[in-house]
Amino acid sequence: MAVLVLSGAIGAGKSSLTGLIAERLGTEAFYESVDDNPVLPLFYQDPSKYAFLLQIYFLNTRFHSIKRALQADNNVLDRSIYEDALFFQMNADMGRANQTEVKIYKDLLGNMMEEIAGMPKKNPDLLIHIDVSYETMLKRITKRGRSYEQVTTDPSLVKYYHTLLDYYEPWYQNYNYSPKMRIDGDKYDFVENPKDREIVLGMIEEKLREMGKL
Ligand SMILES: Nc1ncnc2c1ncn2[C@@H]1O[C@H](COP(=O)(O)OP(=O)(O)O)[C@@H](O)[C@H]1O
Ligand SMILES: Nc1nc2c(ncn2[C@H]2C[C@H](O)[C@@H](COP(=O)(O)O)O2)c(=O)[nH]1
């Protein structure tokens, strides 16, 4: 079997699809710590003060997860270390990190990636990227209901979410750690519609079969 990593914007459906894949393929699911993340609500209150600290928190947990996931060949991660720099670069570009923080971050990430490159299994087997439009992203963020993520609580998040989506396309194009595939998260309601769920899981299984991993 394989190590799968999911990617996509906030609310794209990564955790939901991770659970469905784990159930279907009998793999272990790795979820990011969100509700027990002590820095996340602070970041949304004061992004400039907490952008660096939050990134170090996520980077550390993502490093831990990918190391564990790559040790066994039957895992699925709802977001991975490969997306970490996307978030920090965006926040740094928005002026939420200073040059020293950017340098420390890049050095630390570089060290961690070297560690991963030295492991017996160096890369995931497949990246599954969920594309969503701004409208879908917002609908799902509203549905999930975390107060600090709501644009009604903080209207400046409208720009933040649009900018995040803009950073994803080049990130996906440049991602080259493994084969990759895209799922249209606007088209397929794999959470509430069983037919759509079958189509999406079928596409993933087909890709794995093509790769000789299923
Ligand atoms: N394809 C989908 N169709 C309908 N609802 C979805 C879909 N994907 C996710 N959701 C809902 O949107 C919210 C966010 O999904 P989640 O899986 O937590 O996203 P992510 O992990 O990418 O942030 C949840 O309430 C989930 O039930
Ligand atoms: N500044 C950063 N924020 C991040 C990062 N990874 C996730 N997040 C935020 C975005 C959401 O509010 C929340 C959970 O993300 P989901 O996509 O799982 O809903 O955490 C990051 O690296 N930097």
From TrEMBL:
Keywords associated with the record: Kinase, Transferase
Domain of life: Bacteria
GO molecular function, one term: kinase activity
InterPro entries: DCK/DGK, Deoxyribonucleoside_kinase, DNK_dom, P-loop_NTPase
Residue span, Deoxynucleoside kinase domain: 5-205
The keyword S-adenosyl-L-methionine belongs to this UniProt entry's keyword annotation: no
Entry's family note: Belongs to the DCK/DGK family.
Protein name: Deoxynucleoside kinase
Organism: Lapidilactobacillus gannanensis
Taxonomic lineage of the native organism: Bacteria, Bacillati, Bacillota, Bacilli, Lactobacillales
